[in-house]
Amino acid sequence: MKPRNSVSLVVEEPNWRRRGVELPVVRGAARLALLRGAPEQSAAQLTILLSHDERLRALNAQFRGIDAPTNVLAFPATATSKGYLGDVALALGVAEREATRAGIGLCAHAQHLTVHGVLHLLGYDHVSVREARIMERLETAILHELGLASPYARIAAE
Predict the structure, then answer these.
(1) Is residue 132 part of a domain?
(2) What is the CATH number of the domain that holds 54?
(3) In total, how many domains does the chain have?
(4) Per-residue confidence in pLDDT tens, the chain, 158 aa
(5) In the sheet that 72-76 helps form, which strands lie side by side, from edge to edge?
(6) Which domain holds residue 41?
(7) How far apart are CA 47 and CA 88, in angstroms?
(8) Is the pTM of this model over 0.90?
(9) Is residue 20 one of the residues assigned to a domain?
(10) What are the phi and psi torsion angles at 46 (to 5°)?
(11) Number of H helices, E strands in the chain
């Protein structure tokens, strides 16, 4: 039997569930991002933290020197962490506001943020235009497979 990717979910902010975010759907988005972003990774492990703005503000300040909440943060594991890719953290308030502005559901946006964070754990980035193009193309393909529209098409239309 082929080893399977393992995605742990930690729900620190219970309102994620109350707002209709389906945890198996978020876990499925992470697994698909692993599969498409690194097909050779057959037994990777990661954790997704569904938290609140204040927690991500504190993490953002501590690790990036930016004292403001953000939608998603990715924390790759150290090179010695065999099979463990790292952690992805999402902020409910920021995600809700973004979803409302974009006219999409919170669960769909949580899937997008999860895919984005997992791709960062896999080494994808959007610092340069070239890197952004590669990451956005893969992200869009994964979201399409999940039945979701490209967030970058919305941004370009604005």
Answers:
(1) no
(2) 3.40.390.30
(3) 1
(4) 455 789 999 999 999 999 999 999 999 999 999 999 988 876 789 999 999 999 999 999 999 999 999 999 999 998 777 889 999 999 999 999 999 999 999 999 999 999 999 999 999 999 999 999 999 999 999 999 999 998 877 555 44
(5) 6-11, 45-51, 84-91, 72-76
(6) 6-123
(7) 6
(8) yes
(9) yes
(10) -155, 165
(11) 7, 4
